Amino acid sequence: MMMIKNLLFAGGAVLVGASSAHAGGFQVYLPSQQSIGMGGVGVGLSMEQAAQFMNPGAMAMLRQNGVQLGVSATFARLAFRPAAGGPQRQLENTTVTPFNVYASFGPKEGKFRAGISIYTPYGSTLKYKNGWEGRFALTEITLRAIYVQPTVSYAITDQLSVGAGLMILAAGSVNLQRAIALPSAEGSIELDGKTKTGFGVNAGIFFKPSDKLSVGLSYRSKIDATVEDGDVTVVNPTAALQSRFVGNKFKATLPLPATFNVGVGIMPTDKLTIGFDVNFTQWSEYRALRFDFTKDGQPAQVGTGTFSESKRAYEDALTFRLGGQYKPSDKLALRLGAGYDMSPVKDGYVTPETPDNNRLIGTAGVGYNITENFGVDASFMFQAILKRTQTEDDLLNNGTTDRVAGTYRTNISIPGIGLRYNF
Amino acid sequence: MNLNFRRSAPFLALLGLALGGCQPDLEDDPKSSAGQADFTTYIAVGNSLTAGFGDNGLYREGQLKSYPNFLAQQFRTVGGGDFVQPLFTEAQSNGSGYLSLTGFTATGTPITTLVTTNRAVRGGTAAAPLFTKFTDPINNLAVPGIRMSDILTAGYGSVQGNPYFERITPDATPGQTYLQRVQATVAALKPTFFTEWLGNNDVLGFATAGGAASSLTPVATFTTNTNLVLDALTAGGAKGLVATIPDVTGIPFFTTVGPGFRATLAANNVPGVVALTGAAPGGATSGNRKQIATADIRDAAGSGRQLFTLTSAPFLPLLGRPTGAPWRSFVPRAALATYLSAYGIDTLQAFGATPANPIPSTFILDDVEQGQVQTATTAFNAALTAAANQRNLAVFDANIFFRSVATSGFVTNGVPNTASFISGNLFSLDGVHPTPRGYAVIANEMIKAINAKYGAAVPGLDPTAYRGVRFPQ
Asked: Would you say which domain of life the source belongs to (chain B) (predicted)?
């Protein structure tokens, strides 16, 4: 266990939280470098240590102890054009590095296997360039959620195994910044807070009726990311209006929704593995984003009232993934995948913090075993968030005029590299 | 392990650079275009609204934030050229002088102060100043105060005329009418596009004087003159836009004071007040006194009919006291005795509580006067729309637009704006003229009408980039 602890520490020190939105809404679906190369599949496979995230039930079928870790770098490039026309707006280029760490141990040929993982299933980092039309809705967001998950898995038979993990929202933070409209000047407001520790369950079942076929089911429960005592900082309020900016603390809860996952694995030959996954994310939990403002524990005004509420009304959403791995030799693995990710965000509800739409995903990866125990994986994922136009009428009809009308289009490139050591 | 991560970092950074090419591009989606319009040379004809007037004055900042200047700026993205305005110089940037918000009283009433430094006054009298002249050719021919009925008036640009027209009238042609100036400009500049927004003052002067002064222009005159000015503007084949006249009863000048006054009266169980109505002289029994029930004063919810002007605000607290202050505020000192005698007013009586000392007509736009204004506005707008349609021009229906602003406000880019005084962001401190943000909103609405009419894609502005009422910082 000592080694794992060191690894975790190294990961935490080198890497930074979560990432730009990468799977409908602010979900970040980057299980591992191997899985990413294959379009993110893995619920119906038992290939690697990341099974404990994708389907804890599959972990017991792993035959080797192992430690693996991976890191991705996300480069999001966005274009926004206001509904009225005019020059397009872009993001400041930020790079975020979601990471994953997995380790599992079990007796050789035993039925039990225990593991621990750290991953970042939700997050968002976007920083809009100065002066963009939506600045009164958002100028910058950093949302991070780091989950730690101890897991056990048990092989009931040679063909059927189950597993469950305790998901712990171990570290999370939210930082939202936007401009505030004042009569003759612009101020800005920053909301910054750390989430309370939250708990959930990740459970799965895995069935492998033959060498050529496997199926899996998994469920990850919702965790509410709650900020109890966040800081409110208002910059440059107009002197005559200072009485409107009294609150200095905020409370807010953001649901990190539950997901149901189904996967199938097909192994036509020893060299070829194909996976197909469907993820169902219960985004309908995310109805509104509400901040309650206080000063000295009492409700206090910030802006127009003692709270602000912005409609989200997300819909449950599906993601389809298809990927494969081909091993021309014992040392080399080539991977390819694709996905289609349906947006939970309805017309009229698109916000700058998740300028979302359906996404087309393409991935590629390569793995190389340097020694019998030690391997390296490189992955690349490209996501095209399709063009999304939101009109003034969409906003007026839905009572969502707290955001901006216009057209968004985003591309995200995510290279990544991972290391694994099996023994 | 840690070392490996550090080694991979430069590799990732390099890869990131290579991925910069993935920037999506919406610049030409849709592509800006002039459509069937040609914005090469644009001229604007109008009154104070077209000049950029605000805060009860015309000053350089307002001129720079005038809607024609905004339009010209946007037209430039689709082939528009230079747009010259008769700007006040930097040294005389305060132009005519203007109202500035300097603070609030303890009860939250705004305190405004007249800015009189760095004005562009070259002579005349305090009541009728003359401004520094600007006689270069100009594209913005706006003249604050001008009515549609004034465009044929010879000498309107003389030193006895309108000082804003006098300011831009060439010294060689001091008797030139406004119509002649428009005709001369069309001949000289050969505009390809124009906007025309005249006629507001043909109702506004009467309305803001509470029906006690000025007059409503006869519809026949209005119609004739509208056709004359549009004929002049289209003489060279220019395309253009005509704007209609907003409903003046929705502007803060009329909606700000009444609700509070009504609430005060109700709280003190005062059943009503006595006011003078119309302009006809006569004593207490001559029929020009009007009883106004407290519940008949229009409140914020729109119940009640009688509207109190912004200018009445300082005097309404004097209700029930003997006072001559309200009368002295608008009647010249020399004429006061004659005026009071003509209207049978005794300033030793309780103000507003008795027919002997009623609330002046000029402070109230009552239901009868509102009806007159409404009828005239409807007729003028019918004339403007017909004249525009006849010439196949774009129409910005400012009447419909401002009506919707008055009832439901106007949200843009996440920022709510309303027709409320000061807090609404759209109307300046005079309660009549827009703020720079209000003018930007108007420019956007005009662009929408132009785009629709001419199949153009002229980009709009971000109104939130421009200020509402300037607060002391």
From this structure: Bacteria
- Contact between B22 and A75 using a beta-carbon 8 Å cutoff: yes
- Pairwise CA distance, residues B4 & A24, whole Å: 32
For chain A, say whether B416 makes contact (Cβ under 8 Å): yes
pLDDT digits (tens, 9 = 90+) for A151-176: 999 999 999 999 999 999 999 999 99
Q: How many Å apart are CA B204 and CA B452, to the nearest integer?
A: 29
Q: What is the pLDDT of residues A77-87, one digit of tens each?
A: 999 999 999 89
- DSSP annotation of A150: E
Q: Which residues contact B378 (CB under 8 A, 6 or more apart)?
A: none
Residue A109, by phi and psi: left (phi above 0), alpha (psi -120 to 50) or beta? left
Q: Check CB contact under 8 Å for A185 and B22.
A: no
pLDDT surpasses 70 at A14: no
Rounded distance, CA A378 to CA B22, Å? 20
Please indicate whether, in this complex, the C-beta atoms of B22 and A77 are within 8 angstroms of each other.
yes
Q: Quote the CA–CA distance of A243 and A191 in Å, as a whole number.
A: 18
Bridge partners (DSSP) of residue B309 are none
* CA separation for the pair B356, B347 (Å, rounded): 8
Show the 3-state SS of A283-326.
HHHCCEEEEEEEECCEECCECCECEEEEECCCCCEEEEEEEEEE
- Give me A311's structure tokens: 């409609």
A-facing residues of B in 384-413 (CB < 8 A) are 411, 413
Q: Do B2 and A87 touch (CB under 8 A)?
A: no
CB A188 within 8 A of CB A175: no
Q: Which of B12, B104, B422 is closest, CB to CB, to A415?
A: B12
Lowest mean pLDDT: which of A201-205, A273-277, B469-473?
B469-473
Of A81, A402, A413, the CB nearest to B22: A413
Closest CB to A411 among B24, B29, B411: B24
Distance (Å) from the alpha carbon of B415 to chain A's nearest alpha carbon: 7
Q: In terms of CATH architecture, what is B42-252+368-465? A: 3-Layer(aba) Sandwich (3.40)
Q: Cis link prior to B30 (omega < 30° from 0)?
A: yes
Over residues A338-358, the pLDDT tens digits come to: 999 999 999 999 999 989 999
CATH code assigned at A418: 2.40.160.60
Number of domains making up chain A = 1
Nearest CA to B343 among B290, B291, B292, B285? B285
* Residue corresponding to tokens 């002067």: B205
Q: Which helix (H) or strand (E) element contains residue A127?
A: strand A112-127
Residue A244 belongs to what domain range? 2-422
Is residue B418's pLDDT more than 70? Answer: yes
Q: Strands (DSSP E) along A182-287, which ranges?
A: 186-194, 198-210, 213-220, 223-235, 249-256, 259-266, 272-281
User: Residue A407 is nearest to which of B20, B26, B413, comparing CB atoms?
Assistant: B26
| 0.90 surpassed by complex ipTM | no
**Which stretch of A109-113, A279-283, B111-115, B246-250 has the lowest confidence by average pLDDT?**
A109-113
Best B17, B55, B415, B435 member to test A by mutation, with max A CBs in 10 Å, is B415
SS3 A415: strand
